[in-house]
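Need residues for this backbone.
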């Protein structure tokens, strides 16, 4: 692996891409520390501290994680890339239900560019809406009396906040596209990963504090290290796992040439949804807790407390929602009828399965089975940090690296980036990260 990293800087094009990616990361991290005008930083810090103590989590916690802590400091990048993610998910759903977008998705690169442009417009619209409500929220922290977060409240502050945060999100989106075009890896995903990884020093600092206070024993550290290795290993295996469906193409004679006759396969991923199912489930579950921050009603707040982290109802509902959204997402992105029709059109068939509806039924059956295994695994990984926090008595920031959204994103993005770097190395006749072979999926 070390030799592969050294060889990466021997290829001029790859070296340039790595340097550009690193410089753009630096620009992104600098922006995460530039504060939004009109905010009292000390009061804002106190506000988030009180909110963290009063509830087990809110939607702002998710936004804070994806923005690398920028939301907690309310910097110019406070919204992070969440509006873009939300817009992308909305466009994926619209592609499945609106014929116009479905047609665009089948037009190749030209259609992708049109969909991507709609995604950008959606990002701007969502950024304006979210930043406006954040400005109102900061002006009226109703639950915590005595806090004055906004120095000069009013429409001037609101418009300035909307302009600042929306511009910040658009700039992050541009950074991601520049990484995609001139750097290495998926730009948007790498920006999210950089934000998550930036929380590691804070987590290590909290862990060091607990060690110095002798609140964590050496045996606990050993258990944590073993669990971390096990979680990363299992996530890599499931992320790379897929089921091969063999496909045989019949021979066709056109003039003097023979076409077809070859064998291939359809790879069905065990975990198709990735972190999408977790994001959907978290957003739905944390919505009551978020609303409770603004509604000073004791009955509603008590009811909302049953849907916060640490409560057994939260864990059960969280797992069930993740399994549901895994199936929901697969139903959106994978259409066995289209796959069966395309196979029939080009003379392909699954050995032992008749073309047409029997083929689509078989694909539907197989996809449901492997989705169940993947969904149960994702649900376990999602609630595992809560188990670690309760068992080992560590802060949630430390426990969050033992599962949940963060570890899935980090592992998935790192594997994709390593694949791209390896393709450059192999193309220039260098040994890859794994000697003698490329990184491949694991067959289930």
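Answer:
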């Amino acid at each position: 692996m070390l030799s592969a990293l050294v060889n990466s800087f021997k290829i001029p094009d790859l070296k340039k891409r790595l340097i550009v990616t690193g410089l753009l990361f630096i620009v992104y991290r600098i922006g995460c520390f530039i504060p939004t005008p009109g905010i009292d930083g000390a009061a804002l810090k106190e506000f988030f501290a009180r909110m963290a103590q009063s509830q087990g989590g809110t939607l702002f916690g998710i936004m804070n994680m994806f923005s690398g802590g920028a939301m907690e400091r309310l910097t110019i990048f406070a919204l992070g890339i969440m509006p873009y993610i939300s817009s992308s998910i909305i466009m994926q759903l619209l592609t499945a239900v609106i014929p116009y977008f479905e047609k665009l998705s089948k037009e190749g690169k030209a259609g992708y560019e049109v969909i991507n442009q709609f995604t950008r417009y959606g990002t701007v619209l969502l950024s304006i809406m979210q930043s406006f409500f954040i400005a109102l929220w900061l002006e009226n922290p109703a639950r915590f009396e005595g806090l004055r977060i906004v120095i000069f409240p009013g429409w001037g502050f609101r418009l300035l906040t909307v302009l600042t945060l929306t511009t910040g999100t658009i700039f992050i989106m541009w950074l991601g596209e520049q990484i995609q075009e001139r750097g290495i890896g998926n730009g948007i995903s790498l920006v999210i990963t950089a934000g998550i990884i930036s929380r590691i020093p804070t987590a290590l600092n909290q862990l060091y504090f607990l060690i110095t206070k002798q609140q964590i024993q050496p045996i606990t550290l050993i258990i944590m290290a073993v669990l971390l290795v096990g979680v990363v290993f299992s996530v890599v295996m499931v992320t790379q796992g897929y089921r091969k469906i063999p496909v045989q193409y019949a021979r066709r004679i056109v003039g003097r040439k023979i076409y077809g006759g070859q064998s291939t396969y359809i790879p069905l991923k065990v975990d198709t949804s990735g972190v999408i199912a977790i994001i959907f489930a978290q957003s739905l579950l944390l919505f009551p807790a978020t609303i409770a921050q603004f509604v000073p009603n004791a009955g509603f707040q008590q009811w909302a407390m049953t849907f916060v982290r640490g409560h057994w109802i939260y864990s059960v509902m969280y797992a069930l929602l993740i399994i549901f959204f895994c199936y929901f997402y697969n139903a959106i992105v994978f259409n066995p009828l289209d796959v069966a029709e395309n196979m029939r059109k080009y003379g392909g068939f699954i050995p032992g399965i008749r073309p047409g509806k029997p083929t689509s039924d078989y694909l539907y059956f197989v996809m449901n089975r492997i989705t169940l295994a993947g969904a149960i695994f994702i649900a376990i990984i999602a609630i595992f940090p809560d188990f670690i926090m309760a068992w080992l008595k560590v802060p949630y920031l430390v426990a969050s690296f033992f599962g949940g959204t963060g570890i899935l994103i980090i592992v998935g993005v790192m594997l994709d980036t390593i694949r791209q770097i390896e393709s450059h190395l192999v193309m220039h006749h260098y040994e890859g990260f794994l000697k003698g072979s490329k990184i491949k999926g694991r067959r289930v």
